[in-house]
Backbone:
């Protein structure tokens, strides 16, 4: 992912952390649970298992969030490409319509000229 998109993602994440009540509540609960965990008398082995489990869950959630974000970005890019294609097709259709109208007018004028020439030739032959 480009650095610009990465910055946008981090800014969006930061806004969510600051504004979303559920995220703030979950963060507060996590801090409280971490404090309770640190107060528990666990063996080094047990603490390592809990830390590894927590790290694995966080890693999974981060990866899932990243993949969902990427999927959303792909959808957005695809929609933008489709929108551009529709605009280009609309423009091409408008140009084609203008050319058809111009062609018909030109053809009508040409037919009038030929018709006038034909009458002139008929008049010349009659004389």
Residues:
């Amino acid at each position: 992912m480009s650095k610009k998109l990465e910055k946008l993602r981090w800014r969006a994440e930061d806004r969510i952390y600051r504004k979303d009540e559920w995220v703030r509540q979950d963060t507060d609960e996590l801090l409280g649970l971490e404090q309770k965990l640190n107060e528990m008398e666990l063996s080094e082995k047990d603490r390592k298992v809990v830390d590894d489990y927590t790290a694995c869950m966080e890693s999974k959630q981060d990866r899932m969030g990243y993949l969902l974000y990427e999927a959303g970005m792909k959808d957005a890019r695809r929609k933008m490409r489709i929108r551009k294609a529709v605009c280009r097709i609309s423009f091409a259709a408008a140009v084609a319509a203008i050319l058809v109208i111009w062609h018909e007018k030109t053809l009508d004028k040409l037919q009038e000229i030929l018709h006038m020439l034909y009458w002139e030739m008929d008049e010349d032959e009659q004389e």
In short: The CA atoms of residues 64 and 80 lie 24 Å apart. The chain has a mean pLDDT of 84. The first helix runs from residue 3 to 19. Helices lie at 3-19, 21-39, 44-126.
